[in-house]
UniProtKB/TrEMBL annotation, chain A:
InterPro entries: Golgin_A_7/ERF4, Ras_palmitoyltransferase. GO terms for biological process: Golgi to plasma membrane protein transport; protein targeting to membrane. The keyword Lipoprotein applies. May be involved in protein transport from Golgi to cell surface. The ZDHHC9-GOLGA7 complex is a palmitoyltransferase specific for HRAS and NRAS. It holds the Pfam family Erf4. Signal peptide: none annotated. Belongs to the ERF4 family. It comes from Paramormyrops kingsleyae. It is a lipid-anchor. The lineage of its organism: Eukaryota, Metazoa, Chordata, Craniata, Vertebrata. The keyword Membrane applies. This is Golgin subfamily A member 7. One of its GO terms (cellular component) is palmitoyltransferase complex. Residues 20-132 form the Golgin subfamily A member 7/ERF4 domain. Keywords: Golgi apparatus, Lipoprotein, Membrane, Palmitate.
TrEMBL record, chain B:
The DHHC domain is required for palmitoyltransferase activity. Pfam families: DHHC. InterPro entries: Palmitoyltrfase_DHHC, PFA4/ZDH16/20/ERF2-like. One of its GO terms (molecular function) is protein-cysteine S-palmitoyltransferase activity. It comes from the Eukaryota. Residues 181-310 form the Palmitoyltransferase DHHC domain. Its main location: membrane. It catalyses: L-cysteinyl-[protein] + hexadecanoyl-CoA = S-hexadecanoyl-L-cysteinyl-[protein] + CoA. It comes from Paramormyrops kingsleyae. It is a multi-pass membrane protein. Belongs to the DHHC palmitoyltransferase family. This is Palmitoyltransferase.
Amino acid sequence: MAETHSLQDIRQQASVAAKVFIQRDYTNGTMCQFQTKFPSELESRIDKQQFEETLRMLNNLYAEAEKLGGQSYVEGCLACLTAYTIFLCMETHYEKVLKKIAKYIQEQNDKIYAPRGLLLTDPIERGLRVVEITIFEDRSTGSGR
Amino acid sequence: QYFLLVNQFSIQAATVPKIPAALNRGLMDPGMTECQYSQISTVASSPMESQLGKKIPKRKWQTFPGRNKFYCNGRIMMGRQTGVFYLTLVLIVVTSGLFFAFDCPFLAYSLSPAIPAIGAFLFLFVMGMLLRASFSDPGVLPRATPDEAAHLEYGINSPGSGGCRSPPRTQEVVINGQTVKLKYCFTCKIFRPPRASHCSLCDNCVERFDHHCPWVGNCVGKRNYRYFYLFILSLSFLTIFIFAFVITHIVLRSNQTGFLSALKDSPLLNHSDTVLEVVVCFFSMWSIVGLSGFHTYLIGSNQTTNEDIKGLWSSKRGKGNYNPYSYSSVITNCCAALCGPLPPSLIDRRGFIQPDTPQTLCFGNSLVSLRADCDEADDLLFFFFLLHPSLLPVSLASWPFSHDSCLPLCVPHSRSCSHLSTPSALVLESSL
């Protein structure tokens, strides 16, 4: 059974065992969605349900960011009329949702992933291509030299 | 293991005649043994930084691997050849300037002061859209990190094999019922998302790549397509506006004084300016209005110039061939393209480079991230690589190999380092 680590512990002491990359899911077009298939490397570390729940939440947040609806149209038209100078003082809807996503990932890392020796990297740091999950070495089994 | 590493290096260093100063400072620093010995820290302040002295943190745009130019400390991003862009600017500014200087006073007086006002608004809008289209990030996809690239290269479906196999060139995916092929980009080491394309001029993969516009001096992609479209649309209005009112000016003046004398009486400067305005507007009008019409069609059918030219979604290709990205109606397509949410830039130009993340500054970081579980033989391989004169970068930002040649050094530790490709093979690969 894996020892529990805090996020700080992980970052300062543990060493990386492997990295898992969750690729994008393009079946609905170019919208930012990630595959929810559970990778086999994480089988020993985390519950499948929990993992899928995290990914589903992420996918929902990205869908919200890219949603075409009344709010985005109003923002778009207003921005066009002001020759996009409005974005000098205001954040776009997408950026607001990205902040929400960053907070969500941080929270998930703190509560669920770090205690299991895992770390989720925010996809925006990888160009929204992959969700990178770093698997840290289990100190209890030990593999250092 | 790390001590062994340093010893090997010192042997190597003694036999190799020249080592560039920057590399030498980084590798021969006596403090290196201590920081190499300590485990990897994801905390920003690593011992190496303080021991190397005043290391100014670099912003990501300074080591950007594409062929782009950056200004204002990374705020402005343009393509490589900007000459034609300056021509565009000059043409617009000069023609509009002449219009405001010589035609507007007459028109404001004899017709209405609204004319220069509308003209001014159009001109400012055109300039705003042009600058936005030219200076913003078109939607460049950042290149794969070494870990990701290695993950793809060693086989996505066989993580335990450790075999060095080049990734499949295409991946098929079904989007809304249509089979779309995703191509692997050898330069960026990623599978390109649908609608993305690699611009050979800028050497970047761009999302929803439309075309590289020399007039705008930048690629036109997902993030700046609406600015580009609004630019050409407003420019067509502006050219038609100027053309119409210059003709009106001549007509009105000739009504007042007779046509020939209208041309004769006005000073020579005025006359040639009018002719210049008419000529520029007349010739650019057709191409710009035509281009606006073409892009209006593209927006309505939700296609890119790239897709239209290749005829990817044309019914001529097959009976069941349709555009999987198009929404149900033309209006939705237009709204999506012009008023949809604006995606953020993925390349984070002004962010600071973290010393622990393996990015383009590979040579400095790779030593810190080099793992203790690599074999001795691979350490030697690494040093050969590092010290081979032809692979030493002159400037990390511009040398094409600097990013790719570090690839084997940042490979995840679960994979055996003995499966690294030979230096020559890697050099070949990075030149693709």
